[in-house]
TrEMBL record:
Its main location: cytoplasm. The keyword Transmembrane helix does not apply. This is Chaperone protein DnaJ. It is found in: Cytoplasm. The gene is dnaJ. The lineage of its organism: Bacteria, Pseudomonadati, Pseudomonadota, Alphaproteobacteria, Rhodobacterales. It comes from Poseidonocella sedimentorum. Residues 31-47 have a biased composition (Basic and acidic residues). It holds the Pfam family DnaJ.
Amino acid sequence: MSKRDYYDVLGVERGASADEIKKAYRRKAKELHPDRNSDDPAAEGKFKEAGEAYEVLKDAEKKAAYDRFGHAAFEGGMGGGGGARPGAGGQGDFASAFSDVFDDLFGDFMGGQRGGGARQRAARGADLRYNLRISLEDAFSGLKKTINVPGSTVCTACSGSGAEGGAEPITCPTCAGMGKVRAQQGFFTVERTCPTCSGLGQTISNPCKSCGGAGRVQKERALSVNIPAGVETGTRIRLAGEGEAGMRGGPTGDLYIFVEVAPHKLFEREGNELHCRVPVSMATAALGGDIEVPTIEGGRSRVKIPAGSQAGRQMRLRGKGMPALRGGARGDMFIELAVETPVNLTTRQKELLKEFDAESSDNSPESSSFFSSVKSFWDSMKG
């Protein structure tokens, strides 16, 4: 059976560019793959035919020979630039063709790099997390704090190279510095981490005795950290280059400080606002008066209580809340009145309250309105 024209197989014109040929083969490889055409017994043959065509047309010398002599260019030892001829029964050339497209589609995803050559495989150090708990007062004013961070630092004995005496590592002979090795499995090329260098691309013949060849050692460090005013729970502070040291001279990771503001005995925080629940006596709430309330900076503010204030009433103290994290104005503080019922009454106090109660039929409008509504409700139920 005569072979089909390679250009017809891929569906391109004879003057197609290398990029057009590659795109055409991509489409054909996806369209004709046996896994997607399990019900078509001819699919595998068509799939191999497309690979054979691409193997020739992707190579400038083979393509020139094919354009001049057709399929005869690869029969009887004629031209073609050497190598196994297409359709010779083996699958080395076809696998190579499919590998090119596989690299093009998935190489970046798998961290691969086409074109050969050694890559810098020194691994970046891991980022570290430090949980810091501070008081609300510290969140208000900001603070400078020294923290102890466990982690790894660059080995001073080998200057981070991992080799004894600071000698340079050598390129891994197994993967040629790529950090990955490839194995052919049928039509696919599978890429795995190099077992010799563990993906670093380099090996050390004489590892440093201090760090065992890692280029870093475990050590706790003391760091001075500036916590800005206005931070709140969940604030994240990044210290670049203060994380784990990299493997064999790789860049250092970062340190992330996660701030948690502890609950306060007097104040509750909502964003930049503060809330303070202040108990007042029944007499003060009824008659009115002045009270002193605390502020977060440790001072006092005088607040005037209007006569007849009810429990739960709120009053605003402008500019007495928390500062904004990035230099904005301070929020407000809200005072919530908690009218306190007296306890442990003396005999005289009880007598006075009874007298007051007897004279206070018109002094509790909310109570009168409530019980009036209750009476109406009960009457309607009877009806």
